[in-house]
Amino acid sequence: MPRKPLIAANWKMYKVPAQAEEFVKKFLPLIEDKDRAEIVICPSATSLAAVVAAVQGSVLAVGGQNMHWAEEGAYTGETSPLMLKAVGATHVIIGHSERRQYFGETDEMVNHKILSAVKNELTPIICVGETLEEREANKTEEVLLRQCQIAFKAVEPEAAENFIIAYEPVWAIGTGRTATPEMAGLAHFYIRSQVARLLGRKAADSMRILYGGSVKPDNASALANQPEIDGALVGGASLDPVSFAKIVNY
Ligand code: PGA
Known about the structure:
about 250 residues; alpha/beta; TIM Barrel; 12 helices; about 40% helix; binds 2-phosphoglycolic acid
């Protein structure tokens, strides 16, 4: 079974609800083929409700950008999986490198969040990727292996079949530097083979592995042509409906 491509928009800390609604209104008519790819919009927590309402009846799904693993508790400032679900989100980004870099998220926290997403029936979009120093020290595979090994601890192989992984080399995020399609293809192949080792062939074959890091309309098709790349997690270029539509339409 071929894997259906998935394109996710990571809006990071941009757009208030009115801007988010405006985006959806402009973006929806620009999608050419509504069945070719799954599209997930991940707005900030305060715009989730507005985006869920705006996408009603369309092919768009909505995801959170982060969550706590606990269902409720004294965790000031956090959002729980129950809260994401209640507002209508179906997906959640976990372990984005900005969370790891600026908010101290560890591989173990990523693992707790993944297990909680499974329990709460949210589809995790799990981010992995090496920094520039790690790549230059030839540690890309070691880092990806460690991130995957810890992320998937105690995960049931069947639960992992609908997981989404985003390979996002940290040095390519928001920098305008993209991994070449070949570099990304190799990293994706490596990740999939490790997933096969950790969770079995079935999970590895069904799991979508997205590329993320300066995906733009002019490099999207070359990346999409790599057989190991099942879609994209798009930051900067997803903020504008026209440029995000160009990426989705490739
Ligand atoms: P970028 O961000 O497309 O702006 O590089 C990607 C991401 O952080 O998910």
